[in-house]
Specification:
Length: about 675
């Protein structure tokens, strides 16, 4: 629930009414909605007028007019309505009840366009068993479960089943953190006690809500920094399947999963795009920050989870939601390129956009920003099977109090919310929590200001209330390919507030921006492979997904090769395999940029995997090249890079007899 002091309620509701320009007469119940695969497809989402009014209050108080203008764009965004207590159903001092929101949703619904209301089911017995900040009102006892069923789930279900609301689509986020806690925190006595009630309560909620055709169930699936490791992910998918099998409708009672609820884990780590890469032979995922987890971000995690769920028997139609309300990590501290450090931890720490000191830091993390705007079926991530980006945690609502604050909701003081606390759960580091935080769920204005400032994509400064990204640029092609430059062109994107320009990426590096539909990338190296993508931006700050990737190899031409080279090659051979070690030295007098080493295997060897470069084999020819723009992409005169690979051989294992870099042959020795 959006929390605003009682005395402000009347005034703020009036503001909200003005804001959303409601028709004077509520439309009569619209036609019943059939249950579809993705409820968000072609739909708009409900904007909570109570939360919007609170944001409007913050905009009024903001001393910086540019910040206030951004807040007024944020208040037009849809956020979830949290049923965080039994009294939230009818409404309490902290917010309006469920019928209020559904009635407002009917008013917001445009005829012919479906509307999704995001609703959070959050009142299990023994709630938040591994933390204290959101402990709830119901004890983990049989009596607590009985109340959960009759006073909470039944009460919500009977309202949702009202035929008046049959024309809405209700997407229920089911019980954040509950099943994930049973995977990783089952040694905690509170979680052990709560476990049977969590399973039974979730099953009950799924049964009751699935029985209503226009309600969609999304189970909370934590985030990549919690369940991403295979040792957690596999058991989580199994637990989800086990719970599904106990329900009356089986797998059909679960429409999908929602990740990152109320967390700040990034959607993507643009400067660490491949968690399988190595640095100096060390996997980058072995850095302290990732603790060997392959899932660096929510795109990784949703794709990973989807595959595991399908293997457990979930239908292919299972969809994913990602809570992007606070995972933007923009602002001045956001890195703009991959680090050039050769120290693994420094490399990861300088490259990641997630600025927390530990991925377990969950309470009001300093430096976070609003993330992607809510939208349906975001393109560009086919492996993740996304139904939508959603804002489940309303930006500006606290995760927990930074000091002990007495209350009657069952909430307690969790030291993870205390900025002065050095937490053993974070490798004995400070929590990084924001100071001055109120109780979980209450309005926390200084945090809200920071979230808006650090939004990524940035919130546009104008007056537009647009929340839709421009269409993805299409038809990306080359017009001229030279030795050191590539001219690109593409077809214009469309957008309802107009396309403001395009960002052009070479690999993951921003190569430049253009106001038109063409761009020339310069400073390239001859005979070198590059990949380009383009994203469109609009005036409101929305950015499209990336275009399809265009691979281009610059021409060899007549330019002087970048410099002489030397290769030292050695192989450590056993029965059928060997490790090849290559030292490539720049013996020329100019830096050797974006080098590309080519050689032929002598006796039918087959490459298996390589490190410190991107390796590939085609026929007998093997190519190794650094990731464009990465730490070893340029070799200074006299300097070397060490790269290597594992390969298979049969019979003899002769060394290659010739090596070439960027079209020029190298000396051997
Ligand atoms: C709180 C809830 C609140 C929700 C949304 C949770 O952490 O426990 O009371 O409704 O956040 O802000």
């Amino acid at each position: 629930m959006s929390k605003i002091p009682k005395r402000l309620l009347a005034a703020s509701t009036a503001v909200a009414t003005a804001l959303v320009a409601l028709p004077l007469i509520a439309p009569s119940a619209s036609a019943a909605e059939a249950h579809v695969d993705n409820p968000y497809a072609g739909a708009t989402q409900y904007v909570n007028p109570t939360w919007a009014a609170t944001v409007e209050g913050a905009a009024t108080r903001a001393s910086d007019p540019a910040l206030a203008a951004k807040m007024r764009q944020v208040e037009t965004q849809p956020t979830a309505v949290w049923m965080d207590r039994i009294s939230a159903i009818t409404g309490n001092a902290d917010g309006n009840g469920l019928r209020f929101h559904l009635d407002r949703a009917l008013l917001q619904k445009q005829s012919g366009t479906p509307l999704v209301v995001n609703l959070v089911i959050y009142d299990l017995p023994g709630r938040d068993c591994y933390a204290l900040a959101s402990n709830g009102e119901l004890p983990a006892t049989a009596a607590g479960l009985a109340r959960y069923k009759s006073e909470y789930i039944d009460a919500i279900a009977s309202i949702l089943a009202d035929s008046k609301y049959a024309g809405l689509r209700i997407a229920a986020t089911i019980e954040p953190d509950s099943l994930p806690n049973l995977i990783t925190n089952s040694s905690q006595p509170e979680c052990q006690t709560a476990a049977p009630f969590y399973r039974d309560g979730v099953k009950y909620a799924l049964d009751k809500l699935h029985a209503i055709p226009n309600v969609y169930n999304y189970i909370d699936a934590a985030h990549s920094g919690w369940l991403g490791w295979d040792s957690n992910a596999g058991p989580a998918a199994k637990l989800f399947a086990d719970v599904a099998r106990t329900t009356q409708a089986g797998f059909a009672s679960i429409d999908g999963f929602v990740t990152n609820t109320a967390n700040t884990t990034p959607l993507e780590e643009p400067y660490l795009p491949n968690s399988s890469l190595t640095l100096n032979g060390n996997p980058i995922r072995s850095a302290k920050f990732y603790e060997w987890n392959f899932d660096f971000d929510e795109i990784d995690w949703t794709a990973h989870l989807y595959n595991l769920l399908i293997a457990e028997g979930f239908p292919a139609s299972t969809g994913m939601l990602i809570d992007t309300s606070r995972n933007g990590w923009g602002g001045a501290a956001r890195p703009t390129a991959t680090s050039t450090s050769t120290d693994l931890n420094t490399y990861v720490d300088q490259s990641r956009v997630d600025r927390r000191n530990h991925r377990g830091a969950w309470c009001n993390p300093l430096g976070a920003g609003i993330g992607e705007r809510p939208r349906s079926t975001p393109s560009g991530y086919p492996g993740s099977h996304l139904d939508a980006f959603v804002w489940i945690k309303p930006p500006g609502e606290s995760d927990g109090a930074s000091t002990d604050i007495p209350n009657d909701e069952g909430k307690r003081f969790d030291r993870m919310c205390d900025p002065t606390f050095v937490s053993p759960k974070l490798g004995n580091q400070l929590t990084g929590a924001s100071p001055g935080a109120p109780l979980a769920g209450r309005w926390f204005e200084s945090q809200f200001n920071e979230l808006v400032r650090n939004a990524y994509p940035a919130i546009g400064g104008g007056s537009s209330s647009d929340q839709t990204a421009p269409s993805v640029p299409t038809g990306l092609r080359t017009t001229t390919v030279g030795d050191t430059s590539v001219a690109l062109a593409w077809t214009a994107s469309t957008d309802n507030v107009g396309v403001a320009g395009y960002d052009i990426y070479r690999g993951t590096t921003l190569a430049g921006s253009s106001a038109t539909t063409s761009f020339t990338a310069t400073g390239l190296t001859a005979s070198t492979a590059y990949s380009f993508t383009v994203r469109a931006k609009d005036a409101a700050g929305n950015v499209s997904a990336a275009s399809t990737t265009l691979a281009v190899t610059t021409t060899t031409g007549s330019t002087t090769p970048p410099g002489a080279c030397r290769v030292n090659y050695s192989a450590n051979t056993w029965n059928t395999g060997f490790t090849g070690t290559v030292k490539l030295t720049n013996t020329g007098s100019a830096p050797l940029a974006n080098w590309r080493l080519v050689f032929d295997f002598a006796n039918g060897q087959t490459l298996q995997q390589g490190w410190n470069a991107t390796w590939s084999q085609s026929g007998t020819t093997v190519t190794a090249a650094p990731v464009v723009g990465s730490w070893n992409a340029t070799i200074a005169p006299g300097a070397s890079v060490d790269i290597g690979f594992n390969a298979a051989h049969t019979g003899t294992n002769n060394a290659p007899t010739a090596f070439a870099v960027n079209g020029q042959s190298c000396s051997i020795g």
